[in-house]
Design a protein that fits this description.
By secondary structure, the chain is mainly α. The chain has 22 helices and ten strands. Helix content is about 55%, strand content about 5%.
């Protein structure tokens, strides 16, 4: 709400957040990201993250940090450079290659951008592992776990990590991991890690653009290089998507013909030599090292997991609103459209023929509720006439009926329902009634709100001022005269939904940070008892070396039980908050 004059008695809205809310990552989200980096990589990494979030280095969506000069790296800041490489190894930093021109001297310079989204995704890693295990099995889970623990790895390193953890030989699990890796790659759960020589994205105000500031020519070259590189490259989004998920040459399997002739000839020769020397065990360097494809670094594709979680959320919402058969129908549409999507937050699916949707519904297995071909067509017609307009119908000149699902509308509907629940909890039924009324009618005066909500004018005014004070409502002034006198000015109340959504999301991030701090505080208070419990558990696991002094008393057992209940409660709240953050910020 802008700073305009308001009539007497109208409260001034409380500004709870600063100007950083204009960026995609709010202040609370960046604070939580710094805490996560500090927890996983130590305090110096958190300091580096603060350096990357400087206000004077703001060049777009995230904050960027430029590495110091080589002389300074070898000096006082030399200990920080390996840490930057370490967090870049774990995909927490984006690396770009700056352009060079006449004003740039010395070796090539890179630009580092703190990826707040990837840092926050570390809280969702257990869900990634559980989803991979449920859909693809334990082998896929082990491959995914190796990539999550190490950030980005080559295929040989993935094999070595899984073999070390499972205490098995690499040769015995190579075939299983090959099929599991190909399954993950086919489902787009893993991808090729981007290199550090990409052009930086365009920005409105490049780094160092002020006059007489060091690096001004470097920043101008950065902006020039970005525009020229994209025009010369001319790569479409679909081509970039295919390149990200291109399988390595030695893993093509059935697609043998896709490999070059020299590669196929070399592969046949190696297979023939292996048949002649069956007793010879392949060395670690030979295994999974054939071809240039094995030198590619691979990482977990968090966007695909978010997309699948978003798809499941939409299916559950449609099944709750229109029945289980509607959920089966929507799931078939989303699966048919999945290959054509290039981003997580797709507003609509691609245009799908009605016959293709019906065939996909009848072909689904493992469903308790069956859906015939005719039932699918009738349900499509019924959902297309529904008032919210989640499903849209299109007809072409060939009289082929096509449908598209507005997944963005479903997500917005779920967001609005949750916001209404928060308003009801904070302001009661009357406050929620006014909030829904203004969402539907856009702009109303006090008297119009009181009449439509069937409330006395005094009660309506109090509820409006309460909502406006907490920034759930905004006011638009419409003056009758040029002097803008309050007595001759209309005050129209309305709901600014984008601002409300940002405020709710920021509060969720703040609540998640507080819960994490509370859990850490509870565990630190009982650190002595928990350490004694671990010692007792280690004693029980050993066959010998019985220590009679390590025995928990009744009071200590009660403390352990209380800590366990508190930890379960706080972790449950953290999981629920993470689901809501995904709905409001990632979906």
């Amino acid at each position: 709400m802008t700073s305009r004059s308001v009539p007497t008695g109208m409260p001034t809205p409380r500004r709870r957040f600063d100007a950083s809310r204009a960026s995609m990552a709010s202040q609370e989200a960046r604070f939580l990201a710094r805490e996560i980096v500090k927890e996983h990589f130590g305090s110096p990494a958190e300091v580096t993250g603060r350096t990357g979030n400087r206000e004077d280095a703001d060049v777009g969506r995230e904050r960027r940090l430029t590495p110091p000069r080589p002389a300074r790296v070898r000096g006082a800041a030399g200990a920080r450079s390996p840490l930057v490489r370490r967090i870049a190894q774990h995909n927490l930093v984006k690396t770009y290659l700056l352009a060079t021109d006449a004003t740039t001297h010395g070796p090539r310079r890179h630009l580092y951008e703190a990826d707040v989204d990837q840092i926050l995704m570390r809280l969702r890693h257990p869900k990634f592992l559980l989803h991979a295990k449920e859909t693809l099995g334990e082998e896929a889970e082990s491959v995914l776990q190796a990539l999550l623990e190490n950030g980005r790895l080559r295929l040989s390193q993935v094999l070595s990590s899984v073999a070390t953890k499972s205490e098995s030989s690499e040769e015995s699990i190579a075939d299983q991991l090959k099929s599991a890796f190909l399954s993950l790659l086919e489902r787009r759960m893993v991808e090729r890690a981007p290199d550090g020589n990409r052009d930086p994205p365009p920005c409105k105000e490049p780094l160092g653009s002020r006059r007489n500031r060091p690096g001004r020519g470097l920043a101008q070259a950065m902006g020039k290089k970005t525009g020229e590189g994209r025009e010369e490259q001319g790569e479409t989004a679909q081509e970039a998507m295919n390149r990200r998920f291109q399988p390595p040459e030695i893993f093509v399997g059935a697609e043998e013909t896709h490999a070059p002739t020299a590669v196929r000839r070399k592969r046949r020769k190696l297979n023939r030599l292996a048949d002649e020397e069956e007793d010879e065990v392949p060395s670690k360097e030979v295994l999974w090292q054939e071809g240039s494809g094995c030198e590619v670094l691979w990482r977990v594709n968090a966007e695909e997991f978010n997309r699948q979680f978003r798809m499941q959320l939409i299916v559950d919402a449609m099944a709750e609103m229109h029945g289980e058969k509607a959920g089966i129908l929507v799931k078939a549409m989303l699966e048919l459209s999945a290959r054509e999507e290039t981003q997580v937050k797709a507003e609509t699916t691609v245009l799908l023929a009605a016959d293709d949707i019906a065939k996909a519904c009848t072909g689904q297995t493992g469903q308790e509720t069956c859906l015939s071909f005719r039932e699918a067509l009738d349900l499509l017609e019924l959902l297309s006439m529904d008032k919210p307009g989640f499903l849209s119908r299109f007809s072409t000149n060939t009289e082929v009926l096509s449908y598209t699902l507005s997944s963005g509308k479903v997500i917005d509907h779920l967001k609005l329902k949750h916001v209404e629940g928060v308003v009801t909890q904070k302001f009661g039924e009357r406050g929620c009634r006014i909030f829904r009324l203004l969402c539907a009618k856009r702009m109303l005066e006090q008297k119009q709100v009181a009449d439509a909500a069937m409330l006395p004018i005094r009660d309506a005014r109090e509820e409006l001022y309460k909502l406006m004070k907490e920034e759930w409502l905004s006011v638009q002034e419409v003056p009758k005269t040029s002097d803008r006198a309050p007595a001759r000015t209309y005050y129209l109340f309305y709901v600014d939904l984008p601002t409300v959504m940002k405020n709710v999301t920021a509060e969720m991030y703040g609540s998640l940070s507080n819960i994490r701090a509370r859990l850490d505080h509870e565990l630190r208070q009982e650190e002595e008892v928990l350490g004694l419990l671990d010692a007792v558990a280690d004693r029980d696991n050993e066959e010998s070396g019985y220590l009679p002094s390590l025995v928990l008393t009744s009071a200590q057992r009660q403390q352990v039980e209380q800590v366990r209940k508190t930890a379960i409660l706080l972790e449950t709240l953290m999981g629920r908050l993470d689901d809501l953050i995904a709905l409001f910020d990632n979906f």
